[in-house]
Design goal:
By secondary structure, the protein is an alpha+beta fold. It contains six helices and five strands; from the N terminus they run E-E-H-E-E-H-H-H-H-H-E. The chain has a five-stranded mixed beta sheet.
Amino acid sequence: WIDRLPEAPSGVTSRAVGAGLNDSGAGFDLMMVTEGFLTTAQQQALAVLDSVLNDRLVEQVREQLGASYGGGQVFSEVVLRPRDLVDVVVSVSGDPERVDELHKVVLGVVADVAASGPSQEEFERARRVVQADLDTYSNWDLMNELMDRARRGSSGVTLAGSYAAVAGLERSDVADVARLVLHLEDRIEVFRRP
């Protein structure tokens, strides 16, 4: 068996590609990779963090700047094989003429959350979203739970454990995970430019 996953990024790796037909895909993607295992509580804190960042992007990129219809999307994935990783991806599409401005604002949003964590209001709203999401568990989620249980035994992530973890989260738990996974100094970024 050979682990063919590339190493986590070190430093900032930046590339540019075409924005597509009529520049409709203009924007950028950021990816930060963290090696290591997250507990059930940390995984749920990560889900809350995603919700906080998504809300901030809508507020600051779409509502305040008016430079993007959707604001942006943040999604994180916990990878269990071949080694434990956490991928955080921030994807923003918007005005082709304002990609650099969007990039600067989004970096500021991510840096602020990494440094300070969410506000109490943001935390409570995002925690409610994650709790509601747990009510729509899919077959894919159940399959991942079974695979994790086979790999880790009783320390694997379960639906019941996830509910309990979300209920027990504090704002500081989300701030701790933000500091762990949001490291802008080590990222991959791909600009989709006109």
